[in-house]
Automatic annotation (TrEMBL):
Source species taxonomy: Bacteria, Bacillati, Bacillota, Bacilli, Bacillales
Designated name of the protein: L-fucose isomerase C-terminal domain-containing protein
Pfam families per record: Fucose_iso_C
Presence of keyword Ribonucleoprotein: no
Superkingdom of source: Bacteria
Length: 446
């Protein structure tokens, strides 16, 4: 079931076969109730603009994710224009099939959907169209996918990212123009002082931070709770959590090197890993667009923890590439043959970091990318292989769906950023639709 609130508005005219239309409405309601956590709908087909206005007045103030406009019969553009006076959310236009062919055109639902889509296009309002009857599997799959995308669009418009420290020297791709980011994606930023966090976190009493250690022990293999770096991980994580709650943050982009090693004396990777495992996606090197990419993947993949890594190796014979990072990776991503193993940062030799290869399975690779021309999306697909850990730190070897060598050269020539988000499951169609809804260039390798 989708954790979302849908406003279902069935529209029809009495000059058509309203009894057949009512049958479609009832079946649609039944399916929607079984697949959406919250459904707001009238008790019958709305057949006049005045009736529609009365219904919309009755739900004024209700928070919704998606407007689902079902053209159960043909109806003119007045209905949608009235809805747009009340709601700014994206719209799904749904037309159903004719109940019979031959003789009278009983519903003319498809023309109604066509007319409504034209109104939305001319109002420059984001929308999608679906066609089919409520008992059709293809329609159900498309509608669920579309509702999920609409929910994520709304979540993006409400997304508030905590940026903990500036990006490291030379990591220009990690930054973002706040005004452009808000305009294009709806995302806002909240800046946090990393040095202040270091200074204040070590003052916290043990009873406040010990819970972070106990949480890590539930999934991390080989964790030494007496290690000073484990204490600092717990102190820092606890301090940041207080800030997350106070500022109502939804994701983080965190500067990691050299500050964590030089000033705190601990690796940042453990904090990034535990936060992401527990639903607060956190990118390293203060990569704002990397954090957004991770957030989108987690939302579309039903809460699955995402990964963020560099593309560091290619094996042409296996048509595979390796994504790696120093020691950040959500615990549940670990290959079950080893589990989420504690280690040290591979270059700095400071703990505590994660040290494991990722599990096998179908994966989607994604990046919200930015160029001087604006935003674009990158969508890729592959299979994570069940192989030995390619490199120390966290890493995963992925057999790509496209030619690995050709893809590599195209990515480099297109100048994509060197951080790629990855999630288990296939949400490529969702991402392609998200790009269409956002009116962004979307490059696809599937």
């Amino acid at each position: 079931m989708q954790n979302t609130t849908v406003l279902y508005v069935p529209i029809g005219r009495k000059t058509f076969d309203i009894e057949a239309a009512e049958m479609y409405r009832q079946k649609s309601m039944e399916w929607l109730k079984g697949n959406c956590s919250t459904l707001i709908a009238p008790e019958q087909i709305i057949t006049s603009v005045e009736e529609l206005q009365g219904f919309l007045d009755s739900i004024k103030g209700d928070k919704i994710d998606t407007v689902l406009y079902q053209s159960v019969t043909f109806a003119d553009g007045e209905f949608m224009v009235k809805i747009l006076e009340y709601f700014k959310q994206p719209v799904i236009v749904w037309s159903v099939r004719e109940p019979s062919v031959g003789g009278r055109l009983r519903l003319n639902s498809l023309t109604g959907g066509n007319s409504t889509s034209n109104v939305l296009r001319n109002h420059q309002h984001p929308f999608a169209f679906v066609f089919g009857n409520p008992d059709e599997k293809a329609l159900q799959d498309r509608l669920l996918r579309q509702i999920n995308v609409m929910r994520v669009l709304k979540a993006l418009n409400e997304l508030k990212i905590g940026v903990v420290g500036d990006y490291p020297p030379g990591f220009f791709f990690s930054q973002a123009n706040e005004e452009e980011l808000k305009s294009a994606l709806g995302v806002t930023l909240h800046k946090m002082d990393l040095q202040e966090a270091f200074k204040e976190c070590v003052k916290l009493p043990e009873h406040e931070w010990i819970g972070e250690v106990e949480r890590a022990e539930k999934q991390v293999i080989g964790l030494n709770r007496n290690d000073e770096t484990v204490t600092k991980f717990a102190q820092f994580s606890t301090y940041i959590k207080k800030h997350i709650q106070r500022e109502e943050l939804d994701a983080l982009a965190m500067r990691c090197w050299p500050d964590f090693f030089n000033d705190l004396g601990a690796a940042p990777c453990s904090t990034l890993s535990q936060f992401t495992e527990d639903g607060m996606v956190t990118s390293c090197e203060s990569d704002i667009h990397g954090s957004i990419s991770m957030f989108i993947l987690r939302e579309l993949a039903g809460g699955n923890a995402p990964y963020l890594g560099d593309l560091v190796h290619i094996d042409e014979e296996k048509n595979s590439v390796v994504f790696w990072h120093c020691g950040a990776g959500a615990y549940s991503l670990a290959n079950p043959s080893t589990g989420a193993t504690a280690g040290v940062h591979p270059n700095r030799k400071i703990g505590f970091a994660m040290d494991f290869g990722l599990k096998a399975g179908e994966v989607t690779i994604f990046r919200v990318s930015h160029t001087p021309d604006g935003y674009r999306l990158l969508v890729m697909k592959g299979d994570a292989l069940d192989v030995e850990q390619p490199f120390t730190g966290t890493s995963v070897e992925v057999e790509l769906a496209t030619n690995a060598s050709d893809t590599l050269y195209e990515l480099m020539h297109a100048g994509y950023e060197p951080h790629f988000a990855l999630v288990y499951g296939d949400v490529t169609e969702h991402l392609i639709e998200l790009g269409r809804m956002l009116n962004l260039e979307t490059k696809v390798y599937i």
